[in-house]
Amino acid sequence: MLRSTISSLVPRATSVARHMSNAAKLTTVEINDVTGIATLTMNRPPVNGLNLELLTDLNNSIQEIEDNKSRGLILTSSNPTIFSAGLDILEMYKPDKERLKAFWTTLQDVWLALYGSAVPTAAAINGHSPAGGCLLATSCEYRVMLPKFTIGLNETKLGIVAPKWFMSSFLSVLPRRVAERALNQGRMFTTDEALRNGLIDEVANSKEEALAKCAEFIGSFSKVNPLARSLTKQQLRAAELSELENERAQDLEKFIFFVNQPAVQKGLGIYLENLKKKSKN
Ligand SMILES: CC/C=C\C/C=C\CCC/C=C/CC(=O)SCCNC(=O)CCNC(=O)[C@H](O)C(C)(C)COP(=O)(O)OP(=O)(O)OC[C@H]1O[C@@H](n2cnc3c(N)ncnc32)[C@H](O)[C@@H]1OP(=O)(O)O
Questions:
Q1: Among 100, 255, 279, 281, residue to substitute to test ligand 1 (most atoms within 8 Å of Cβ)
Q2: Residues 132, 133, 152, 186: which is the catalytic one?
Q3: Which of 108-130 are b and which e, b meaning 16 or more Cβ less than 10 Å from the residue's Cβ?
Q4: Cα separation of 5 and 83, whole Å?
């Protein structure tokens, strides 16, 4: 059933050992022969932490799906319990200056490509989805999540601030007062809470069911003119997209300044240490 499986082995050189996951591509794209829908899978063990390499592969895969004229894009994870742990905190903790710039710029690219994608998009959230994971999911048009996981923008819990465009994605899904309170609290929603509040659209009992529900959503546009649909979506999303496009340099500057504050570095260090302690217990 798969028209193509794009999963090339692209050797990569990087000078920073801690960021080297492996030499293979960190995303795969599978296009269903019958439906023409592309499934984009993140595959960066252990937790799909969004580092520069995973973001680069995500960006290239989204581009590829747009160029292939796929009928839709479903974003998911190869990890059975984690959709994405969000940004790889190691990219922000004691960062290398040039790499930090490339990291944030590529994250901006991914958001612009996914939130602004011309094709219908859906997320099959088959695991936990904090922060950057939630950003990816809320950039899609539809979300199906498996039970007993969590999703949300928890940045304030790390002592950091979600940028405006993270909030735009969140606000495109949640009512303003729910979004505002959740952002201020750094709230992580359980699957049930996410469904009740509209942060996700459906619950599925398995990844296969989630993928099928996402495909059904994408299929709901089969009788709609694709150009009319994509121009409608892009018009609705134009204000948020232009806001970042017009302020990319300032957004990058703000991020670099903020991340390099001693208090932020200290907070990230403590958060990482606690994560490591927890994983050893
Ligand atoms: C005005 C403002 C302008 C600009 C703003 C500037 C800057 C701020 C913007 C920054 C935005 C950030 C958004 C983010 O995405 S930050 C990341 C937030 N992510 C999290 O908080 C998730 C943390 N992780 C977890 O909660 C759990 O790991 C998880 C539920 C995902 C999985 O749990 P599980 O028990 O299955 O695994 P663990 O044992 O916890 O983890 C396994 C190993 O992975 C490491 N890990 C986990 N998450 C991360 C991460 N996000 N980054 C790096 N590393 C991570 C964890 O430490 C374990 O490592 P080892 O001990 O095995 O080495």
A1: 279
A2: 132
A3: bbbbbbbbbbbbbbbbbbbbbbb
A4: 21
Q: Structural domain boundaries of the chain? A: 17-280
Tens digit of each residue's pLDDT, the chain (281 residues): 444 444 332 223 232 333 333 458 999 999 999 999 999 999 999 999 999 999 999 999 999 999 998 999 999 999 999 999 999 999 999 999 999 999 999 999 999 999 999 999 999 999 999 999 999 999 999 999 999 999 999 999 988 999 999 999 999 999 999 999 999 999 999 999 999 999 999 999 999 999 999 999 999 999 999 999 999 999 999 999 999 999 999 999 999 999 999 999 999 999 999 999 988 87
Within its chain, how far is the Cα of 245 from the centroid? 18
Does ipTM top 0.85?
A: yes
- Please provide the CATH number assigned to the domain covering 17-280: 3.90.226.10
Are 39 and 46 spatial neighbours (Cβ–Cβ below 8 Å)?
no
What residue ranges line ligand 1, CB within 6 angstroms? 46-47, 49, 81-82, 85-90, 128, 130-132, 154-155, 158, 160-161, 163, 254-255, 258-259, 275-276, 278-279
87 is catalytic: yes
Could you confirm whether 231 is annotated as catalytic? Answer: no
Rounded distance from Cα 218 to ligand 1 centre (Å): 30
pTM: predicted TM-score of the whole model, two decimal places: 0.93
